[in-house]
Design a protein that fits this description.
Layout: H1 2-49, E1 55-58, E2 64-69, E3 125-129, H2 133-138, H3 163-167, E4 171-183, E5 185-191, E6 204-212, E7 220-228, H4 230-233, E8 239-245, E9 263-264, E10 287-293, H5 297-305, E11 318-322, E12 326-331, E13 343-353, E14 380-388, E15 394-395, E16 401-404, E17 411-417, E18 421-427
Antiparallel strand pairs: 1-2, 2-3, 4-13, 4-16, 5-10, 5-14, 6-7, 6-13, 7-8, 9-12, 10-11, 11-12, 14-15, 14-18, 17-18
Length: 436
């Protein structure tokens, strides 16, 4: 009898196995199909970003810089830019320079990036940092790769900041700002550091923001500076970056050339590539200068009507210059709504992500990782802060305001001097006895 029961149990087990095996294989097939589908999507995105190139340069930091023909860059994947005619030099410059006469002036030192040690890109091409598969896989999704999270902007209004700016977004700032006028550009010189990052999903950056629109769903922003972002680049190198959005970081825009938009014309400087050398605490200081500007419509229209420029002023391009001579390229006006005319606010300063991973404030550093009171050689700074006015002239901003969410973690201190113009020290260590 016992033997018979044992036999029946075996029959039942076999029957259940027969029923379960197809489901097991089906589940594995579903998983495999999911993995296969993701692989295909990643490969497709890589192919879209990494354009055919005429030359590749291996940088000492592990980057690969591809020299891509200027007409084949990612910008022209944008539906608004399919028939766009590239403008190789600005029509009008706020410093009164004439481009194209000489590459580098005799009294300027060439700006360097690490990849320059192993080569340069030829004329007619632009240097594009090659995107790696691992970089895309680190993003929460392919769609979010190369994008900032929403509400990653400081909101220094007279009214209190939106509650979720601090409690939910996890972004903290130490900035100066100006508002209340029409601004056609901004400039600053920023010293460059290698702040320590606590968590790979955090970053530290120092930049300029040119903003227009409301701080809700339709904010337009153009941004440029330096950043350390392990999540985006896979290392802790300090890198030159740009960013743009026309809908408050929701769907449009990205870092550098990781989506269509910014049109690069310069063959010397690679967006997203490492900056070299960097400042040292209590020792040598190194800085970069960034200028972003557009020609006011009334001036552009005059030039156009007098046949002094061939570009339709309705284009409203926002140009970016790195250093004294490197005009990198421009954001075409059609990318934007509010910024197609002018900016309504300019901000300069630092930003970090505070993920509070262990229930405490992050120890991710901003700037040099030291507070502004320590001064030159120890604190990070912005100097010669300027705006571009309606006459396309650079001038010091009036009525600078300051803003931080938690000044015991990161702070800002302004000043002025003959050789530095309007300046400020900023930054901090993050977590410390006063910043729990």
């Amino acid at each position: 009898m016992a033997a018979k029961l044992g036999y029946e149990k075996k029959l039942v087990l076999c029957f259940l196995l027969v029923l379960l095996v197809p489901f097991t294989f089906a589940s594995r097939a579903t998983i495999n199909n999911g993995v296969s589908s993701q692989k295909l999507e990643v490969q497709k995105h890589l192919k879209n970003l990494n354009k055919p190139h005429v030359k590749s340069i291996k940088s000492p930091d592990g980057d690969i810089i591809d020299c891509v023909h200027v007409s084949n860059q990612p910008a022209f994947d944008h539906p608004e830019l399919k028939s766009h005619k590239i403008q190789m030099i600005p029509n009008y410059h706020p410093e009164g320079k004439i481009f194209g006469e000489s590459k580098v002036s005799s009294n300027s030192k060439p700006l360097t990036q690490l990849w320059h040690k192993n080569g340069r890109c030829p004329e007619g091409t632009i240097p594009v940092r090659r995107t790696k598969k691992d970089e895309i896989l680190r993003a929460s999704s392919i769609q979010n790769f190369g994008k900032k999270k929403q509400k990653s902007f400081p909101q220094p209004r007279s009214s209190k900041p939106l509650p979720d700016l601090i409690t939910q977004s996890g972004h903290q700032h130490a900035i100066v700002y100006v508002e209340g006028d029409k601004y056609y550009g901004a400039k600053a010189t920023i010293n460059v550091w290698d702040p320590k990052i606590q968590q790979p999903n955090e970053f530290s950056l120092s930049q300029m923001w040119l903003l227009s629109g409301s701080f809700g769903q339709d904010l337009n922003s153009i941004e440029a500076g330096w950043q350390v972002s392990p999540d985006l680049y896979g290392d802790n190198n300090t890198r030159l970056f740009t960013y743009w959005t026309s809908d408050a970081y929701q769907a449009t825009g990205c870092y550098n050339l990781l989506c269509s938009g910014f049109i690069q014309v310069n063959n010397d400087i690679a967006l997203g590539a490492s900056i070299y050398p960097l400042s040292n605490y209590g020792s040598s200081q190194y800085d970069i200068s960034i200028l972003v500007w557009k020609v006011p419509f009334h001036l552009a229209n005059t030039l156009y009507l007098n046949h002094l420029c061939i570009i339709d002023p309705k284009e409203g391009n926002w140009w970016m210059q790195f250093g004294s001579e490197h005009v990198l390229g421009y954001w075409p006006g059609p990318l934007f709504s509010y910024l197609s005319e002018s900016a309504s606010m300019i901000e300069w300063g630092g930003e970090v992500v505070n993920s509070e991973s262990d229930g405490q404030h992050t120890s991710t550093q901003m700037g040099s990782g030291h507070f502004p009171d320590e001064g030159f050689g120890k604190s990070s700074y912005f100097k010669n802060i300027q705006i571009v006015d309606a006459n396309n002239k650079l001038r010091p901003p009036k009525d600078l305001g300051t803003f931080t969410e938690q000044d015991s973690c990161y702070n800002v201190k302004t000043g002025s001097a003959n050789d530095w113009g309007n300046y400020f020290y900023y930054g901090g260590p993050g977590r410390n006895p006063n910043c729990p």
